[in-house]
Amino acid sequence: MPGLVYFSSKSGNTQRFVARLGADASRIPVEEGAGFPVPDKPFVLICPTYADGEGRGAVPKQVIHFLNDPARRARLTGVIGTGNRNFGATYALAGRIISQKCKVPLLYTFELAGTETDIARVRAGLETLGRKTCSTVP
Predict the structure, then answer these.
(1) Span 36-95, pLDDT tens digits
(2) N or C: which end of the chain has fewer CB within 10 A?
(3) Distances (CA, A) of 67 to 23, 49, 72, 89, 113
(4) Residue 124 backbone dihedrals phi, psi, to 5 degrees
(5) Do residues 102 and 69 touch, judged by C-beta distance below 8 A?
(6) Contact indicator for 72, 45 with CB cutoff of 8 Å
(7) Is 82 exposed, middle or buried (0-12, 13-18, 19+ CB in 10 A)?
(8) Chain-centre distance of CA 94, in angstroms?
(9) What pTM value is reported for the model?
(10) Can you give the three-state secondary structure of the chain, one letter per residue?
């Protein structure tokens, strides 16, 4: 399974989702200036959206700073976006933006802290992705 890196605000929705996945994951800190995780293998990024009504500010600044490092960005294999469907067109916008800018697939989107179905689908998808990125597994 690829590594997981995620950002979660103080609301903790994304952190609760990641905890329910039961996978090892590194968190991009909420506090600016705190040290970033250093992925040592390919990873999937889980990122919530924090946009205004026009879509500005969708990708959290900490995530932008994390991805500005070429070595970290080179290990990014996909992104999972999250958000609140009440915000219409900006739902999971951060995932779409990261996917386009970093040229990686948007693997999945879920709302708030996700459902049990979301957890099952993401687990299955990460296992499949892990098999595809490992040349020793048929």
Answers:
(1) 999 999 999 999 998 877 788 899 999 999 999 999 999 999 999 999 998 888 899 999
(2) C
(3) 21, 15, 6, 24, 23
(4) -60, -45
(5) no
(6) no
(7) buried
(8) 9
(9) 0.89
(10) CCEEEEECCCCCHHHHHHHHHCCCCEEECCCCCCCCCCCCCCEEEEEECCCCCCCCCCCCHHHHHHHCCHHHHHHEEEEEEEECHHHHHHCCHHHHHHHHHHCCCEEEEEECCCCHHHHHHHHHHHHHHHHHHCCCCC
Q: Which two tokens stand for residue 71?
A: 């070595």
Residue keyed to tokens 């900006």? 90
| Rounded Cα distance, 104 and 95, in Å | 10
